[in-house]
Amino acid sequence: xQGKKLFLDKEVTRFRLSxxxxxxxxxxxxxxxxxxxxLYDETQALYSRTGQPSLxxxxxxxxxxxxxxxxxxxxxxxxxxxxxxLDILYFLGYEVDEELPWHSTVSRTRQLFPASVFERLFDxxxxxxxxxxxxTGHTQAVDSAFVKANASLEGLxxxxxxxxxxxxxxxxxxxxxxxxxxxxxxxxxxxxxxxQRVATTHAxxxxxxxxxxxxxxxxxxxxxxxxxxxxxxxxxxxxxKPGKARALNYLCSMAxxxxxxxxxxxxxxxxxxxxxxxxxxxxxxxxxxxxxxDLPVQEVVADTNYxxxxxxxxxxxxxxxxxxxxxxxxxxEIAGFTYDVEADCFTCLAGKALSFKVFDKSxxxxxxxxxxxxxxxxxxxxxxxxxxxxxxxxxxxxxxYAAHYRRALSRQQSRQGxxxxxxxxxxxxxxxxxxxxxxxxxxxxxxxxxxxHKTMLLTAIAFNLKKLLKHQPQRQASLAMAQSKxxxxxxxxxxxxxxxxx
Length: 502
Hints:
Number of helices: 18
Oligomer: single chain
Largest sheet: 6 strands, mixed
Distance between the termini: 65 Å
């Protein structure tokens, strides 16, 4: 007989939410796993003693964590989604007939709380991962990835020269002009010499207007962080990856423990910064966080973007072995010159010494050592027309961290170095893929680097909580006592007894 279900939409008089959420549910287990009460003490100083009650801070953090776990970027969609899920309502502590907070309340509360509260929650969850045995602390993999900002390239504005953006002088005795009515809300300027250099480069590009097959090139729009900025999010930076279009992004820098893939550190940086400059800002808080749990960092694994003599010296000075490949432009030897480590000098083909003279510091902070030969040695040298044709004496410029580069190159070419390269790939790259595709980090729905840092912290907290929920402590295996083997004579005797029984 065919069945037909009739829906009456009747009012249920007896309903308990806890009975509708099973014990194995993710959010029910998550509510019992973490002690959220410490958040009241962390946020107490941010509220006034009078006025209307605000959104519960515990409810706020649970709500935004649900957005990360459900891969929802929009606050409006997050509230609509939570209203349809019984398990999420139970996790938030809301009844079925209670109204959830408005999406604008969630946004304002996110702006109210400083980043230190989010970091405190991250440390709290990380401590639980350490207590569960998910963190070893021995080897840390470091990498970075671009995260799309909440701004568009279509709304970019040109920067003004620094001289043109100077404030207007006010004459005493006259009324103060309305600055807000006569000028934009914020004027971001750039040094005039940088703008002139970029304009000259762009004009040189446009002069070569003959493209392939004789067709003229279209007039390209020059987009650079030196010439343009986003008025919607001035801290977002224009960046590009190979094979992808330019976009306004933030840089997500992260460290992952090699034990089980738990995120040990995460931060938001400007997208136009080089990775090699940011390593110190990653290692310092990471080292302090692990030392609080008596887990000192012993090895750091990163890709070639972090290759820098300063980084090698920084890690080795802390007793950490840097497994960072040397970039391709580094040459351990100079053709025609031999280096003496003890004397710290080079010897040319003519047998003359180029001794160390002075240190030189570049604009980007790099430290170099300058070696020069004596003028009399080069003046009478038969190799001068080919060795130093336009100068009086030959000069060599080498990095001051040459010894650190040689050790890094030796580690890179070893068998252990190849193993550490594969270890980095299988440790941190899958974590970045999960955060971008399944935890809502493909785009930041806030504006400003501070807000982007909060979003990345929430994403890392949600990822670590998932790791903690999936962890099952290993049961102790039962011990079995192995009996010793009987001697050969006893084996023969047992054999004949069995034969007789047959």
